[in-house]
Every structure is written in C-alpha cells, then in structure tokens.
Amino acid sequence: MSKVNLSIVAVSILLVVGTWAQNPKKALKPPKPNKAQCCDEVRSLKVQVANLTSLLGELSRKQEADLMTVVRQIMDLDKQNRQQEARVTEAESKYSEINNRVEIMQLQTLQSAPQTTTSDAIYDCATLYSKNYKISGEYKLPKDEFLGTPELSVFCDMETNGGGWTLIQRRKVGLTIFSRDWKQYKSGFGSIRGDFWLGNDHIFRLTRQPSVLRIEMEDWEGETRYAEYGLFSVANELNSYKLLLANYRGNAGDSLRYHNNTNFSTFNKDNDKCVDNCAALRKGGYWYNCCTDSNLNGVFYRYGEHMKGTDGITWYGWHGPNYSLKKVEMKVRPVGFQP
Ligand SMILES: [Ca+2]
C-alpha cells in the first residue's frame, strides 16, 4: 500500500516539475501588443499621410500658379518685344521714305541739268523701279520737256507682282466723292495717299506706251481678288478718253470687257451707249456702256450699307450689281516690264 502511495507521489512531483519546466518558456514570450495602442499608431500615420498629401497638393497648386505667372510674364514680354519691333519697322520705313524723297530730289536736279538725255527720263513708277527705287510710296515724277510731261505726284506700288506699278485710282477711305464733272476727271482729284483718280490726261500719257492694267479689289469680308488686262490704253481727250483693253486674266471675273471700246462719261458729258445718263445714274465717271458690268468710280458704301444700291463700287463678275466693294486699286505698268 505505502509503495503504491510513494509512486503516486513521485508521479505527481514529476508532473509538477514538468509543468514548471514549461511555464518559464511562456513567461519569456513578449507581451501581446495592446489593441488600442496599435489603432492609435495607424491613426497617427494616417493623419501624417493626409497632412503630407494636402501639403503636396498645396505645393503643386503653388507651382502651377507660379508657372502661370511666369508664362504670363513671358507673353507680356513677347508682346512688348513685338510692339518694339513694329515701332522699329515703322521708323525704318519712314526713314527710307524720307531717304527716297531726298534721292528723288537729287534725281530731279540731275534731270534739269542740260546734259540729261531722254533715256534717263523718269516717266512712271516702272522707270523709278529700274533706277532702284523699290519702296512703295508717293513719288514726284519730274517735268520732262522732251516728253511733254508735267511734274506729277504719283503713288508707286513697288511690291505687287514684281512692282513698278503706277496707281491711277484708289478707293479705301470713302470720304472723297467720285461723282465729279468732266474737267475734274480730266486733271484728276483726291489725295494720292488716300482715294483719288489720277486724271484722264495722265492716264492717256502713261498708256501711250503699251501697258498692263491691274485691278485689285477687297470685299467687306476681307477677301481679295484681282483682274489684269495684258493690254490697256486710254485715248486722248479729242477721242473722249476711249478705253481699249484685251487679254484678261485673274480671279475676279472679266467685268471691264463690257466697257471696252466705249468713251469716258461724266454726268455733264454723256458719251455712253444708253438712252439714260449712266454717269448720273451710277454717280461716277467711267467708260459707261449701258450702263455697267463694273462701276469702280461709284459711291463708297460702308459695311452694312454696302448692299443697297446699284451705284456702289461694283464688279459684277465677283459680287454682282448690288455689292459695293471695300477697297479698289487700279494700277498700270509697261508691257514687258522686268522686275
Ligand atoms: Ca446716254
């Protein structure tokens, strides 16, 4: 009996020791982290991330704003630069125009010298161009006894299609009335830098040499067209400044052909081919037939007013009989002109 008891005690001791041996291991394990503590850390990290994100957003917004400011500054500078450039160009062109006039005066002096030969004569813008005057503007053609030409202010187009063009008419400002009498159309009227008719006597003189006529037009939408006649001449006053032309080319239509072989008419000299007085009806001076397929010396109507009458600055081949053009230039140069 006591033997059995002893062995029970021994087993019990062994079990106790065994249990004790396992326990220290458990006690050495690190304590499980507190659930509340963990959430705090995550929360604080989340807050930090949020702060950083908003900081980043702010920074990028600021950067964008800075960039916009810089772009705006660059654009401003660019604009200023272009304005400066425009001013310089304007000054340069003014300078060269003045220079031109000085040279013209020098040429005039040379012209009046007794040794001058007629081959040096300045007859039109084409001869000026061949003497190296290549800037468009107002020129004074000197008087020439041999050619029988008076001193004359002209406007030269030295750029269009090779240059050398002498303008005989311009419409662009609209303040000059073109319903004028025979005498005014004979000698010319208006301002050479604005709207004018050079004068039938001058046009006759210019077109005694075989000439090309070029007509440039602009409508109120800003589109441009042209009509060119490879042969153009105007007779003298005895022959009523009769128009002769041929060889149309261009993109505006051949609306001067209808006026070919007709005499010039003004309201006080009805030379047209009609029972009516076309010059009075169309309010201009022109080579009226019966009456018009074009009316380049008609009434200047402004935008909005330009589609009212049949007496406007018309070119039927482009805009028909009821559309008054915004701008017109008529110019001549000798056939065979070489730029
Ligand atoms: Ca008539």
UniProtKB/TrEMBL annotation:
InterPro entries the UniProt entry points to: FIB_ANG-like, Fibrinogen-like_C, Fibrinogen_a/b/g_C_1, Fibrinogen_a/b/g_C_dom
Domain Fibrinogen C-terminal: 116-336
Location of the protein in the cell: Secreted
Disulfide bond in keyword set: yes
Superkingdom of source: Eukaryota
Signal peptide: 1-21
Keywords, in A-Z order: Coiled coil, Disulfide bond, Glycoprotein, Secreted, Signal
Primary site of residence: secreted
Protein name: Angiopoietin-like 7
